[in-house]
Specification:
- The mean pLDDT is 83.
- The longest helix has 43 residues.
- The two termini are 24 Å apart.
- Helices cover 81% and strands 0% of the residues.
- It is an all-alpha fold.
Length: 242
Amino acid sequence: MFNALSKAFGQSADPAFRRVFLFSFLISLAVFILLWVIASFTLSWLGEGVGVWVAENVSIEWIQTAADWLFSAASIGALLVVSLFLFPSVMLIGMSFLLDPIAEAVERKHYPGLPAARHQPNGEAIRGALVFTLVTLVINIVALPFYIALLFLPPLNLVLFYLINGYLLGREYFELVAVRRLDIRGATRLRKHFRLRVILAGAIIAFLLTIPILNLFTPIIATAFMLHLFEELRRRTGGAAT
């Protein structure tokens, strides 16, 4: 497993990896610029309203000036803070739709003998996404009381965090790469057969996502990492590409 992770990091300078990262970064930046423009106009409009209200209710000029300054500073600060926390999340979401070239680059370098990947039918992809979404919701709803109960009980809360996210991320990334070679039923059977390994791999991905800066690259590394793991497990069972 750590050999698979090492291979994934070792290919991080691959042009395909850089293209996906750069494209997702630019798309996310464009989205945020648009949101900043909209938010600026909205806050400017609200600021005018606040200024009118202060002018009508406060007669002291320096208080009016201070109120305008405080509103402007708070607005800019809020935009910067929200952007700082949301930008990585938006980038990760955008990157999740661009990971197929990463799998292709890994296969091209490390598994050149593989035939062309299968095309996943739209119906299968939609069903898989719906099932995963439902599983994620159910697991998090069931786990919420345990999260609350263990909030102040480290390391038990960390164990719960990595167990749940290890399962969800392991399942997500394993099936992402597995359906390139197997139908969804075959991918599910293989994942369940090596359940503990897949959960451990998911826990490693969850850990990478907690590291600032590195978390921006994690979907790319996770895809490559899980593809290496998938090929290792598939060949252990003698599975053939479909």
